[in-house]
């Protein structure tokens, strides 16, 4: 039996117990896990040092090494994250619907765990703890397959968490880490129907596309975001500037940041130059349509490929449009159905934009950067779904649940 | 461009208009469709005759031909089905959640259509109309790929529906029928990410497995049902008999019928013989564990493969167990997470069964045959989901929807 099948089978074996744990038992487990991480911080940092050392030898860029690096403070905030999950309401067992039928059948729709969740992710070892916490809180077993560059860290973290779970009512086999760093283990997880109930990929677009295109297990697609902001002719320049700069430059590396600014021609003729200057001040490279380049001489010409690119960087496309319709058509063509914004004082234009744009989150007069489980008040986030099935947009704890119908009869049969 | 890509592209082109149609406009379209089917019944019956003729030449069994055959009465009841969808509440536009954030952002979670739904199904031409009606009512475009044996019927039906839609506000391209009867068209649909938002297979288990194992488009798995009924030692014999006979024999060909009866040893020693006689009277072949065969001499020995088989026929496995735990273990091993029942007067045993069995529908003292959208009061059913993502159990109109967050701001940016 392969490592993947072996560990997924162990995880599946715990789902019955997990589904029956009380909220108190699950919270207790998370608290013990958090305490163990703090207590074993030194050992975790030592293991993390092996990953960093290997990374340096492999020529990994410093920015990547920084994301991988753990210290006491970071481990503390990872443990804090577990404690934050503790205070969130437990969705499991909630009654979502009650149906009384004329034949006397009483039907309850109850929230239940999904079962076994596979998470395939990249470097940062905080995901190991975060994903484990969210899955276990919702009574799911979890099979983690992290990136090979964080393998020593992940292995140590899971060892610490396993020791912690041994002191609790939560079966330690509910948490599994796949240690095989080769692609074979990912490929095997993708086809593990019957053992995994869902796979959630977290990482860059090539990781996600590999999962989406090769999995036979149901997938929740997350992540890719080519987000737009449309400045209507009636947009207030100060608000338009604040929202645009925030959407692009507050944290360009994330999926809800803006890649293309669409500007109504009337707005552009009045206010695009000063807006472009503001982008220059925060070191955003501009690429524009010919009209934009005519107004903003330092903008480079944008290609069609640019409009289809998620830069995740200090680069922005600007395109001048003549109408809301043209903006909507551009978004329909290049958007990834993640987050889209209109800045306007015209309520009718705003209403049309929010109705007609097909995306997980559509904004009127606010930055696309708010598409986030914490910003939405969910208190947690396992990812941002960019698909339409099951969950769309930021996913909090309820996104990690399924439902079950319980039907109470008194001998009813169907005629 | 292939037929599949061409038609899926046409369907996708209508999703913006579809999402904005009022409930009144959608209902009007369904009513015009229903009227057209009745008016063109003769032409549809003629086309159906071609399918029947071809079927006879190919040696299709009479029972299959009967399922394929249309007459004025059947067309009338298909049209009735559309009219029943008209009276159902339209879930689109419903506000599911409202969140007010401390920073003043106002967030609404709204029900929206999924987009373009692909339906891959087998012979019966009523599915063509039924699926079209459910998808269009929920503002979804639909790409139908029916079985080749009903191609003439389906083609004529869609022609009639297209003419009907031309008189309404519903774009006729929202309804597409793939006419290529080869497997290539199915294979192409399964990989049509970007044009199809979801595929729902309806049919036998080989059709469903092909879709589940080969699709890169998200799938809602439906159908396969190895359902159990467990007769606890405290079961009332009359109720146990009524429920068991109904679960097996009222309509054995469907997914919510029972395949294996699990019987507590105490119940078996008192009442299994008379129950077995009742099954014999309704011509159900029995296959049993050695203990069962000792009590019921005409039962054949059941193999392990029998327990894993969805007979969809007048055949039943009987297995005697010594405890609820043994029954639960059998169901966990052989069940398909569809519908499971316990018959007992012991509330504690019932509560444990309903809690611990992992299935879409779990019954206490009622027949598994009730797992059905109409019996649950949904007024419609697009299928019964046996997966845990998105929808589980009978799927009514809300299962054909997604959600979208609309966020209203006054210039908020993220800090």
UniProtKB/TrEMBL annotation, chains A, B:
<dbReference type="Pfam" id="PF00171">
    <property type="entry name" value="Aldedh"/>
</dbReference>
<keyword id="KW-0521">NADP</keyword>
<dbReference type="GO" id="GO:0055129">
    <property type="term" value="P:L-proline biosynthetic process"/>
</dbReference>
<dbReference type="InterPro" id="IPR012134">
    <property type="entry name" value="Glu-5-SA_DH"/>
</dbReference>
<dbReference type="InterPro" id="IPR016163">
    <property type="entry name" value="Ald_DH_C"/>
</dbReference>
<keyword id="KW-0028">Amino-acid biosynthesis</keyword>
<dbReference type="InterPro" id="IPR016161">
    <property type="entry name" value="Ald_DH/histidinol_DH"/>
</dbReference>
<comment type="similarity">
    <text>Belongs to the gamma-glutamyl phosphate reductase family.</text>
</comment>
<comment type="pathway">
    <text>Amino-acid biosynthesis; L-proline biosynthesis; L-glutamate 5-semialdehyde from L-glutamate: step 2/2.</text>
</comment>
<keyword id="KW-0963">Cytoplasm</keyword>
<dbReference type="GO" id="GO:0005737">
    <property type="term" value="C:cytoplasm"/>
</dbReference>
<dbReference type="GO" id="GO:0050661">
    <property type="term" value="F:NADP binding"/>
</dbReference>
<dbReference type="InterPro" id="IPR015590">
    <property type="entry name" value="Aldehyde_DH_dom"/>
</dbReference>
<dbReference type="InterPro" id="IPR000965">
    <property type="entry name" value="GPR_dom"/>
</dbReference>
<dbReference type="InterPro" id="IPR016162">
    <property type="entry name" value="Ald_DH_N"/>
</dbReference>
<dbReference type="GO" id="GO:0004350">
    <property type="term" value="F:glutamate-5-semialdehyde dehydrogenase activity"/>
</dbReference>
<comment type="function">
    <text>Catalyzes the NADPH-dependent reduction of L-glutamate 5-phosphate into L-glutamate 5-semialdehyde and phosphate. The product spontaneously undergoes cyclization to form 1-pyrroline-5-carboxylate.</text>
</comment>
<keyword id="KW-0560">Oxidoreductase</keyword>
<feature type="domain" description="Aldehyde dehydrogenase">
    <location>
        <begin position="17"/>
        <end position="285"/>
    </location>
</feature>
<dbReference type="InterPro" id="IPR020593">
    <property type="entry name" value="G-glutamylP_reductase_CS"/>
</dbReference>
<keyword id="KW-0641">Proline biosynthesis</keyword>
<protein>
    <recommendedName>
        <fullName>Gamma-glutamyl phosphate reductase</fullName>
        <ecNumber>1.2.1.41</ecNumber>
    </recommendedName>
</protein>
């Amino acid at each position: 039996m392969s490592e993947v099948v072996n560990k997924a089978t162990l995880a599946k074996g715990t789902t019955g117990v997990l589904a029956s744990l009380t909220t108190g038992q699950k919270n207790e487990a998370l608290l013990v896990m958090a305490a163990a991480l703090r207590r074993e911080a030194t050992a975790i940092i030592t293991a993390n040092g092996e990953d960093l050392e290997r990374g340096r030898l492999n020529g990994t860029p410093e920015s990547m090494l920084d994301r991988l690096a753990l210290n006491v403070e970071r481990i503390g905030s990872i443990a804090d994250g577990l404690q934050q999950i503790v205070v969130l309401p437990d969705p499991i067992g909630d009654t979502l619907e009650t149906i009384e039928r004329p034949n006397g059948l009483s039907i309850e729709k109850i929230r239940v765990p999904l079962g076994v969740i596979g998470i395939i992710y990249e470097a940062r070892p905080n995901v190991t703890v975060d994903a484990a916490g969210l899955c276990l809180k919702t009574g799911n077993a979890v099979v983690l397959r992290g990136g090979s560059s964080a393998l020593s860290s992940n292995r140590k973290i899971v060892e610490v968490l396993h020791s912690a779970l041994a002191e609790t009512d939560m079966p330690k086999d509910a948490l599994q880490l796949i240690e095989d760093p080769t692609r074979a283990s990912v490929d095997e997880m993708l086809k593990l129907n019957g053992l995994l109930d869902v796979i959630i990929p977290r990482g860059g677009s090539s990781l996600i596309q590999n999962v989406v295109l090769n999995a036979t297990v149901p997938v929740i697609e997350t992540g890719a975001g080519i987000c737009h902001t449309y400045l209507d002719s009636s947009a207030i320049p100060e608000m338009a500037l604040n929202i645009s700069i925030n959407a692009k430059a507050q944290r360009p590396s994330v999926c809800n940041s803006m890649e293309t600014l669409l500007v109504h021609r009337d707005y552009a003729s009045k206010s695009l130059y000063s807006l472009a200057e503001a982008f220059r001040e925060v070191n955003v490279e501009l690429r524009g349509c010919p009209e934009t380049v005519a107004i903003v001489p330092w903008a480079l010409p944008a290609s069609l490929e640019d409009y289809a690119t998620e830069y995740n960087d200090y680069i922005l496309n600007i395109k001048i449009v003549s109408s809301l319709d043209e903006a909507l058509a551009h978004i329909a063509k290049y958007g990834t159905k993640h987050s889209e914004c209109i800045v306007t004082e015209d309520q009718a234009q705003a209403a049309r934009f929010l109705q007609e744009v097909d995306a997980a989150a559509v904004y009127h007069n606010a930055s696309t950067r708010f598409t986030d489980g914490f910003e939405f008040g969910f208190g947690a986030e396992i990812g941002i779904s960019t698909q339409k099935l099951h969950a769309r947009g930021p996913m909090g704890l309820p996104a990690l649940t399924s439902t079950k119908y319980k039907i109470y009869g008194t001998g009813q049969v169907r005629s």
